[in-house]
Design a protein that fits this description.
- There is one protein chain.
- By secondary structure, this protein is of the alpha+beta class.
- It folds into two domains: about 260 residues, no CATH class; about 120 residues, Conserved hypothetical protein from pyrococcus furiosus pfu- 392566-001, domain 2, CATH 3.30.1760.
- It contains 14 helices and 21 strands.
């Protein structure tokens, strides 16, 4: 099982900067336009390190990675970033709203010993190579974890959850994200609390929720450094750990946009596997899918300007592992998109309205909509040693980058 340890975090000096000015979303959801907004917020915004601009004339050794480490060193030297004098766990709380409901997500930021996947730490999604190359270069340059990986554990006893629920101190730093969620970071300083957290979590399986690329990069970096230098700070990585027994976790679906399909031909090709119903243009697809539940999909075809509701007959994926074959995202990818329609190129979109807009203006021929994946599905697939397709889960909200940093030495 996973080993967790407290660490001496590097934090922004709140006497010199404001959290709202220097903290940023995770790099993989920052558009080029929003990166410019973050650059303008502060000369010390973490985006300059974590997801810096590429510049004309960049070369190896004089590129965004070199600028990242230059900023990191300068900000630390000038007291913009400061390091705690002893190891702590860090409590992280996010107050947010989803579908009109107010929720609170609580967890701890800690170091977790890096192991081969499946040995205490379990993935659930497949990854792509390009993002991993970028994150590896950044890690080699800065010798640090700039942002935490969002991960899950299960503990019905809720020892750590109880500690998080009893924090009454003022947060060390606060930052608001673009959706208005309030992110708060606290130090957990009591030795008793630190020992209780260690005792509870050191025998728990950990499931990666968001950050598969960064975990695989950290594992690769650890192996490389161990060959050269032996064990060191690179044997651990920073994670945001959340208890699945708590309320507060939200998983959103990521919808699929496709090209190369036309009208009734689509229906003819999928009706052997689905009961097909239609829905008027005024249809609230979110409400309809929520009501129908598992293995029901929405389809909007631009040429028809019509909604279809697809109900899976549960008979087309006998060759798929039992832990996967009933998952909505697998039925959609493996059966509808790949086998029935023969489509290889898929684009992704979180927002239903934006998906429809892209189809209506002709960017795509159709959009498929699905319900979110359950936390229990994530755990089951991970423990089976399997992986879902990319973008199977979107854990919301995401922990911000720059709230705390882990330096390897």
């Amino acid at each position: 099982m996973a080993e967790i340890v407290p660490f001496r975090g590097i934090l922004y000096n709140k006497s010199k900067v404001s959290g709202d000015d220097v903290i940023a979303p995770p790099y993989d959801i920052i558009t080029p336009e929003y990166r410019e907004v973050l650059y303008q917020k502060s000369p010390y915004n973490i985006v300059r390190i974590d997801f810096g601009r590429e510049m004309p004339g960049d070369t190896d050794g004089n590129d965004k990675y070199a600028r990242a480490v230059k900023h990191f060193k300068e900000w630390y030297r000038n007291g913009i970033l400061v390091r705690d004098d002893r190891p702590f766990f860090y409590a992280y709380e996010i107050d947010y709203k989803i579908a009109g409901d107010s929720k609170v997500l609580k967890g701890i930021i800690t170091l977790v010993k890096i192991e081969e996947l499946g040995k205490g730490v379990y993935p659930h999604e497949a990854t792509h190579s390009k993002p991993k190359a970028d994150r590896l270069k950044l890690m080699k340059s800065c010798f640090a974890n700039i942002s935490p990986i969002y991960s899950l554990y299960s503990s019905p006893k809720k020892v750590t959850s109880g500690i998080l629920g009893n924090i009454t101190d003022e947060p060390y730093i606060v930052s608001r994200d673009t959706d208005g969620a309030v992110h708060k970071l606290y130090r957990i300083t009591g030795e008793t609390e630190i020992d209780l957290i260690k005792k509870e979590l050191n025998d728990k399986a950990i499931f990666i929720a968001d950050g598969h690329h960064r975990y695989e990069v950290s594992l690769e970096f650890k192996k490389e450094m161990n060959k050269i230098n032996g064990p060191g700070g690179w044997d651990y990585m920073m994670m945001f750990l959340v208890n699945t027994a708590d309320e507060g976790i939200t998983i959103l679906p990521t919808h699929r946009l496709v090209k190369g399909i036309k009208g009734e031909d689509v229906i003819a090709r999928i009706e052997k596997d689905f009961i097909i119903d239609t829905c008027g243009l005024e249809c609230d697809i979110y409400e309809r899918l929520s009501h129908e539940g598992k293995n029901t999909f929405g389809l909007y075809i631009g040429s028809n300007e019509k909604w279809y509701i697809l109900k899976y007959k549960n008979s087309g994926l006998k060759d798929i592992h039992p832990a996967l074959r009933s998952l909505d995202v697998v039925v959609l990818h493996e059966l509808i998109i790949k086998r029935d329609l023969g489509i290889n190129d898929v684009s992704y979109e979180m927002d239903i309205g934006e998906s429809l807009k892209k189809v209506k203006r002709g960017d795509f021929d159709a959009a498929f909509f699905l319900n979110p994946t359950d936390v229990e599905d994530v755990e089951r697939v991970a423990l089976s040693g399997l992986r879902m397709p990319p973008k199977s889960t979107y854990f919301y909200p995401k922990p911000l980058t720059g709230m705390v940093i882990n330096k390897f030495k």
